């Protein structure tokens, strides 16, 4: 068994695709039309284009528990998921120059350094560096 796709809810797929590719640097992998104007929309790491895909999944407006859960995580400042980086400080500086808003600046926690940012699509995301 292996991980192929990890989904994250996004409020606007077009906005998410732009942020995740143009700002974060991921590469679009799949864009398959689905019902009701939704898409199976995935991105991958530029360095690992055959690796796991991140599904930019439409946040379900018709399923109240999912919407409440996403908002509760966001409001509490809890990251929906995390991305590994080689150097959190450098990535923090690069993303800050691009206008990304961080709710937690680079912080050492034991054997890791982390930072938390707003993905502009309804989620907090964490970048992590193993020290």
How is the topology of this model organized?
Blueprint: E1 5-10, H1 13-23, E2 27-33, E3 39-44, E4 53-58, H2 64-76, E5 81-84, H3 88-97, E6 102-109, E7 112-118, E8 124-130
Primary descriptors:
single chain; 131 residues; 2,3-Dihydroxybiphenyl 1,2-Dioxygenase, domain 1; 3 helices; alpha/beta; four-stranded mixed beta sheet; globular
Q: In terms of per-residue confidence, which ranges show pLDDT below 50 for 5 or more consecutive residues?
A: none
| CATH H-level homologous superfamily name | 2,3-Dihydroxybiphenyl 1,2-Dioxygenase, domain 1
Structural class by sheet pairing and helices: alpha/beta
| Neighbour order of strands in the largest sheet | 1-4-3-2
Strand content: 35-45%
Describe the sheet with the most strands.
4 strands, mixed
Average of pLDDT:
95
CATH architecture designation: Roll
- Number of helices in the DSSP assignment: 3
Shape: globular
CATH class: Alpha Beta
Number of domains: 1
Report the count of strand segments: 8
Sequence of secondary-structure elements: EHEEEHEHEEE
Explain how this protein is built:
It holds the Pfam family Glyoxalase. The chain is an alpha/beta fold and 131 residues long. It has one domain: Roll (2,3-Dihydroxybiphenyl 1,2-Dioxygenase, domain 1). It is built from 3 helices and 8 strands; from the N terminus they run βαβββαβαβββ. It has helices at 13-23, 64-76, 88-97; strands spanning 5-10, 27-33, 39-44, 53-58, 81-84, 102-109, 112-118, 124-130. It has a 4-stranded mixed beta sheet with strand order 1-4-3-2, covered by helices on one side. Strand 6 and strand 7 (112-118) form a beta hairpin. The radius of gyration is 15 Å and the shape is globular.
């Amino acid at each position: 068994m292996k991980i192929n796709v990890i989904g994250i809810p996004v409020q606007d797929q077009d906005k998410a695709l732009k942020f995740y590719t143009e700002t974060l640097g991921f590469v679009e992998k799949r864009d398959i039309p689905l019902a009701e104007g939704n898409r199976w929309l995935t991105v991958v790491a530029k360095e690992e284009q055959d690796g796991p895909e991140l599904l930019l999944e439409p946040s379900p407006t018709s399923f109240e528990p999912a919407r409440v859960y996403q908002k509760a995580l966001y409001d509490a400042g809890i990251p929906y998921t995390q991305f590994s980086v080689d150097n959190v400080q450098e990535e923090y500086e690069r993303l800050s120059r691009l206008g990304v808003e961080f709710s937690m600046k680079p912080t050492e926690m034991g054997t890791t350094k982390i930072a938390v940012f707003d993905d502009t699509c309804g989620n907090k995301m964490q970048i992590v560096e193993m020290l």
